[in-house]
């Protein structure tokens, strides 16, 4: 059985991510002397060269598997290249949000017209897509990559998880303007939870209890924890036995769905609050990284590292609302009568 491109290149991708983290961590330290600054510059340059070499290996592997693909050189004339490409037509307005983050953006979540972004630089920005100076608020707390973001249904509280095993709760009401000449503001965290022992990527706010948040830890933690964001306390913790990658609540019943990585690579349906396993949905050969819920709340789409996308009817079937036919009222129906 032939391996997929992702399986062949996974180690190289992970190596590039590791090297990027090394650079970010190194640059976060301000050198004390010019000599230290020179050493830092050489270290960063060496790491960048290793990233370039690894990237070239990825390109060669991709080109080997896709012989019809073209590898473009930076010296090629841009206008000449465009003449050979098929035009792409976009419907609607397309906007690119540049600036702000100093490294890749790995987490996103919408809150009405606010697009919240979390980056490898540990920063979180609220981007108001309606205005040109879009960064409305800044959240500073994570020292490593932000890998999970989720707004509460009220739009007042934001949960963020990071690779530093920390979970933050931010409240928009605690926002303070950073300066009189700036529209951007900095928000102080409301709660800081340190109980997870691995990266916190999976986050889900409870639909029937607004102050209840579920979070899942990575391979070194394997736990689903439940938090009361009003009191700042952990109300329950369950060891799932494997990495927790994503969480989804049932919108109609008190159930929670988790997607797992090593060692089980499956979906697990839990009954809340007892956290008794109701079902285990297997079939993946790699960790199940993402889940998305249909608008009616019944169907769940899941995507895994084995490059497969699956749809599950896990939360039941949507109810069809029956139309109640209004009968014509009988004349004088409101008048009392004997028979």
List the helices and strands and how they pair.
Elements: H1 5-27, H2 34-65, H3 78-83, E1 105-111, E2 114-119, E3 123-128, E4 135-140, E5 146-151, E6 157-162, E7 167-177, E8 185-193, E9 200-205, E10 212-217, E11 223-228, E12 233-239, E13 244-249, E14 255-260, E15 267-271, E16 276-281, E17 288-293, E18 299-304, E19 309-313
Parallel strand pairs: 4-8
Antiparallel strand pairs: 1-2, 2-3, 3-4, 5-6, 6-7, 7-8, 9-10, 10-11, 11-12, 13-14, 14-15, 15-16, 17-18, 18-19
Describe the 3D structure.
This protein has 3 helices and 19 strands. The protein is α+β, with helices and mostly antiparallel strands. An 8-stranded mixed beta sheet has the order 1-2-3-4-8-7-6-5, with no helix packed on it. It has a 4-stranded antiparallel beta sheet with strand order 9-10-11-12, with no helix packed on it. It is globular. Residues 176-183 have low confidence and may be disordered. Among the domains are: 1-64; 101-198, Lipocalin (Beta Barrel), CATH 2.40.128.630. The chain is 18% helix and 36% strand.
